[in-house]
Design goal:
With 136 residues, this protein is an alpha+beta fold. The chain has two helices and five strands; from the N terminus they run H-E-E-E-H-E-E.
């Protein structure tokens, strides 16, 4: 007996759910950053290297922020998803952005915001400042 591939209809609702959760996480992260006096200048900025979830300015530093949102711990903490490969990709995205932006001689930093959804109206948010320069 051959193994069957899952029907595409089964995959779509999960993909939509993940996109919706991700979008809600990014909106929550942007609101959090603004409350912390970051100036959010880009959301979902795209280039040939990929997409930066949030680009902001924090006290004269250009900050590239990766947002990871999860609804459970089956695959580990949200921050576990920021692998060395993802870090390299984010650095390439930053290079693309810096090559075409008006910000000159500005320090650059990479942050991660990890969000674990606890229930429909509660989440645990952790902000890793300078995530690529230190340990997470």
């Amino acid at each position: 007996m051959e193994a069957r591939k899952p029907a595409k209809k089964e995959e779509r609702p999960k993909k939509k759910h993940n996109k919706r959760i991700g979008a809600r996480g990014e909106a929550a992260a942007a609101a959090f950053l603004e409350r912390m006096d970051y100036q959010v200048i880009e959301r979902n900025w795209q280039c040939p290297a990929g997409e930066a979830d949030i680009i902001a300015i924090d006290e004269g530093t250009l900050v590239f922020i990766e947002v990871k949102t999860r609804t459970n711990l089956k695959k580990g903490l949200p921050s576990d998803a920021v692998t060395p490969e993802k870090r390299k990709r984010y650095e390439r995205i930053a290079a693309w952005y810096i090559a075409q932006c008006d910000y000159i001689d500005m320090p650059v930093r990479f942050d991660v915001i990890a969000i674990l959804v606890v229930n429909s109206d509660r989440a645990l948010l952790r902000h890793y400042v300078n995530a690529f320069g230190g340990s997470m």
